[in-house]
Amino acid sequence: MLAFMLQFAVTGGVLLFVQQASKRVLDAEQHELVRELQDELMAAWHAGGEPELRQIIEARLETTHGGAEVILYARPDGKPIAGNLGAWPTVIAPRADWRSIDLYRTDGERPERMGVVAMRLPDGSRLLTGHVIEANLRLVRVNREAILLALLAGLAMSLLGALIMGRLISRKIQTVAATANMVGDGTLSERVVTDGSGDAFDALGRSINAMLDRIEALVSQLRLLTDGLAHDLRSPVTRMKSLIERAIVDTRDTATLSTLERVSAEVETLLGMLSTALQISRAESGIGRDRFAEIDVAALLDDLVEIYGPLAEDMGFTLQTDVRGPIRTRLHREFVSQAIGNLIENALKYAENGNRIVLGASVSAGQVVLTVADNGPGIPADRHEEALKRFGRLDPARHIAGSGLGLALVEAVARLHNGGIALSDNAPGLCVALSLQHDI
Q1: Which of 13, 71, 90, 417 is 20 to 30 Å from the Cα of 59, by its Cα?
Q2: Are 293 and 416 in a shared domain?
Q3: Rounded Cα gap, residues 387 and 420, in angstroms
Q4: Domains of the chain: total
Q5: Are residues 345 and 416 in the same domain?
Q6: Per-residue pLDDT for 66 more than 90?
Q7: CA 83, CA 57: separation in Å to the nearest integer?
Q8: What angle do CA 22, 25, 27 make, to 5 degrees?
Q9: Cβ count near 13 (within 10 Å)
Q10: pLDDT digits (tens, 9 = 90+) for 178-217
Q11: Domain of residue 239, residue span
Q12: What is the CATH number of the domain that holds 88?
């Protein structure tokens, strides 16, 4: 828009300059004609006085009958001697510089716009010379109207050009933005389409693609490293757990048995962390999209209530569902079940003094929103972002066993389904909303 306004201002300035320059040239030409006529008549007066001047005026007017010249030779009192004006104009002094005025010529039927100058001759008589400038005024008016039309046409063309250019630029930017959004959603293989034109957008696309190639290579290496490390650690940790459990069976010493049981619990936590890390890695890499299937969300939540209901009752909670209408969508059942299960386990662990957990489901703005809400103490709003960080654990929860990966897995599952995760106040308690793309 700024470029359009600048272009319009430049065009308008150029047209205004042309109009004013044309007007000045026409005015100067009229002044010159009148001055030349005045000089010629003065030369005649100097050569032969009144008779010579009268003769020249009459001869000139006869020759240019119907022309544009205006002449009046008058006595000191203004009474006409010769010329084509019937009387000396009352608004014109005996000595006057250029004036523009409407006057009747003796052979005219209507007033005409004239440009005139007046002077007093040495003997006291008066001489008025001028030129009809109506044609010039019409030319100036036509010129002004043409320039105005050209300016309006230029405005329309500039606006159209700006709109077309803006649309083209917007389309190219939207292409880059769409690629960036898809990469942000985890599709690292996406690239900006380049046309080989060599323009600025093509160069930008090549630079972004080179950056994405590097990012994809680094992320792939890091993912392979973490995935391989987690996978390789599971075997020795599993063997360690098996050995500890065998030692627990064979141990008779109470103190040693207590220590082994604590070590076994820590190993179990470590195994859980490794399993969760593998699940997060697979979800973030997009593994499992081929296992999306159409699912009845209400039935899925009912299954989770059946699985976690007994545990919730043992811990003093009631577990129930609140599904708003029939909802069917395509999703990865195992990942979503694991994500909701993690949220239920978190609520059971951290919702101290609470007694109710509600699993909700609704459809909003093209998203299936699954919620797990409790009536415990909740999390302050200014710490929601901290709670979502991987391995993030708020101070009051540090005495409770856990890995800090539960919400990270939920977020990875949400991203796999082109959704997100959000925390909100349940007044009292915490509500965790898992948004999934509604794909039916």
Answers
A1: 90
A2: yes
A3: 15
A4: 3
A5: yes
A6: no
A7: 6
A8: 110
A9: 10
A10: 888 878 766 777 888 888 888 888 888 889 889 988 887 8
A11: 200-283
A12: 3.30.450.20
